[in-house]
Amino acid sequence: MFGLNKKDTTFLLIVIGLTLFTPILMQPFAEGSGLAQFNGGYPDLMQKVAIFGIFAVGFNILFGLTGYLSFGHAAFLGIGSYSAVWMFKLLTMNVIPGILLAMVVSGIFAAAIGYVSLRRSGIYFSILTLAFAQMCYKMAYSVLTPLTNGETGLQLALDDPRILDRAIEGSSLPVTNLFGLPMNSTYKLEVMNHVFTFSVGFYFCAVIAILAFYVAIRLFRSPFGMMLRAVKSNQHRMNYTGLDPKPYTLAAFVISGMYAGLAGGLLAAMDPLAGADRMLWTASGEVVIMTILGGAGTLMGPVLGAGVIKYLENIFSKINETVLHGWFHWLPDGIEDVVVWIFARFTGEGWHLTLGVTFMLVVTFLPGGLVEGLKRIRDRVQNGKKKRDKYDDPDPDHQPAPSKHVV
Amino acid sequence: METILLQLLNGLDKGSAYALIALGLTLIFGTLGVVNFAHGAIFMIGAFCAVTLSRIFSISFETVDPTKLDFLGNPAKIKTPYVEAWFGADAGAWMIDWAVPLAILFSIPIMIAVGFAMERGLIKHFYKRPHADQILVTFGLAIVLQEIIKYFYGANPISTPAPDAFKGSFDFGAALGFDPNVIIYPYWRLIYFGFAAVVIGAVFSFLRFTTFGMVVRAGMADRETVGLLGINIDRKFTIMFGLAAAVAGMAGVMYAPILSPNYHMGMDFLVLSFVVVVVGGMGSLPGAVAAGFLLGILESFSSMNEIKSIIPGIDQIIIYVVAIIILLTRPRGLMGKKGVMED
């Protein structure tokens, strides 16, 4: 189905199912119970997970397949946001043209930056993309103020032209909409103490995310994806077979730039405001972290990573000392204080610490990311308690098995 | 002429900070082959050493002074720093005043210990892993160090003044025969420049003229052969990592009076110092120093009003423009060697 083989079709259907039922799945705890703050089912967080999922899936097409580590992808995110907001200002508050423009403009920028940066590989490529992104950031901050509104950020204003919407507009700032359906409208459903929020904005992002994911699967399975893997594994061999890797990597760079632009456009569609901070290099670092944390080169990894990080960011940062005292009130006084003190370092203001530590642990012990962790758990469950010698593994790379010492 | 001279001074000053950080980064690149994104965090820890020492020196106890009364009529309480009580009022006041320069001595053992701990505890396990993994794990470490500093010192910048003796400015104009008050320059920045020159010279002569340096240079060229000669090159490289950390830490200590230390200064400097290293050429120490000064000077010249009026905003992006041009025309940077980080 959909041009995929059976396994991928099931996978895609599972992803579609999970995405569409997110508002229910991410709301596992009853309202008002002690665990209610772990509920992530509010529109803001779900939209962010979907959007950054798209961003990370796109980044993975470049990094996971070709191995080129770009540290400047946030630039495309920012460019996408700015162009979408300009579309909202000039033409219409309908989100579709804004998102299309975001993809086109960021694609053009990606083609230009990629054409130059891809002349070098390895760490030089990372530094070149980083330099380009910092340049975009500084320019958006200072020189291009007429286009980007400098440090205040680009916002909607009442006297914007908005050619198509002018007639129907009231006196307050308009909201983004999808053919008349406002993005911020929500429907709340109460079942047995659980409050499920279904919002237009999230479902719009979710549908686009599913489409983006589908495109990514097709890319991964296509001859083009194979070619990108060849770039990663050995460029010299590729050259010897008479293939020029440059067009393939450039295409991958542009595609991933367009994904980033799409994510930026969606961010602007959720909240029509674009600032230069989105282009800062730490924002590029964030998408790298998401991809690696989930598992670079896998299909599901980046989405998983984006979900985990956005969840940590939004939920962990809400847990303050009062909440912790509520949890641990059953402990003896002295021990309670110590436990609360320790946990408080990792939550609330200190959630970055959790992020850094998780990240170091994952890179050190799980180079394949969370997806590999899940795989290992699955293997462990399937093989039961049977101990496995490491030489028993069928060798995936067809390399000669290490000989056992016999002296 | 005067403005050009002033910008040159500004540039040398910025350049010496870039060069010092990039020097440490290159030492780690060149010897260990590790891309260390936590180097900016080491610089930051150095700056916070200065903050810590000046705080330790100002810890004080309260005594009642019966000769004076406060406005309620009670005997006034006066605060006396412990250092004044222990070393005498004059020496104590001098120590508080000179906390930043003294922090250099205090920081060297700390930074070497930090460097050893990082290399033995974490980076050792990443020599054989891809550069991407090294970047990522040290990026994680940088976040962790940053958060620890934020917990202990708060999120606001902490002003750390230089000794009173260096508060003023030096009038270059008068000294060189121009009009007075045209080229005046703060003493501390001059000292920073001199300090950078001394440290850079020391590192170079250490590598050039000592046996240890010779072995390390040999190890940079061919690690395996040096190992086969029976030299424990790993231990030497660990020491080099400690040395690189000490250089970055001292640069941070001395930079504290110029820029009030805050918890994200490491990340701010990191990007720049990477650009400097790449422009200079990976693995080349003179390249890193030259590129640091070159970019510093270019940056300060492009911030002149005359140039900004021709190309607006050039001062913001000049470094990146130069980096991109150099990387595309000279693929190994200014003085890069063949075979370093080229896979």
TrEMBL record, chain A:
Domain of life: Bacteria
Protein location: Cell membrane
A Pfam family it matches: BPD_transp_2
Entry GO MF terms: branched-chain amino acid transmembrane transporter activity
GO CC entries: plasma membrane
Compositional bias annotation for Basic and acidic residues: 389-398
Membrane-spanning segments: 50-69, 98-116, 123-144, 195-217, 247-267, 287-312, 350-371
Name of the protein in its database record: Branched-chain amino acid ABC transporter permease
Residue span of region Disordered: 382-407
Keyword line: Cell membrane, Membrane, Transmembrane, Transmembrane helix
Entry annotated with the keyword Cell membrane: yes
Membrane-protein topology: Multi-pass membrane protein
Keyword Lyase among UniProt keywords: no
Organism annotation: Celeribacter baekdonensis
UniProtKB/TrEMBL annotation, chain B:
Keywords: Amino-acid transport, Cell membrane, Membrane, Transmembrane, Transmembrane helix, Transport
Annotated compartments: Cell membrane
GO cellular-component term (any): plasma membrane
Highest taxon in the source lineage: Bacteria
Pfam families found in the cross-reference section: BPD_transp_2
GO molecular function: transmembrane transporter activity
Keyword Transport in record: yes
Topology term for the membrane: Multi-pass membrane protein
Spans through the membrane: 15-35, 42-61, 98-123, 190-216, 237-258, 270-298, 310-328
GO terms under biological process: amino acid transport
Signal peptide residues on this chain, from the entry's feature table: none
Entry-linked CDD domains: TM_PBP1_LivH_like
Keyword Transport assigned: yes
Family affiliation: Belongs to the binding-protein-dependent transport system permease family. LivHM subfamily.
Name assigned to this protein: Branched-chain amino acid ABC transporter permease
Organism: Celeribacter baekdonensis
Lineage: Bacteria, Pseudomonadati, Pseudomonadota, Alphaproteobacteria, Rhodobacterales
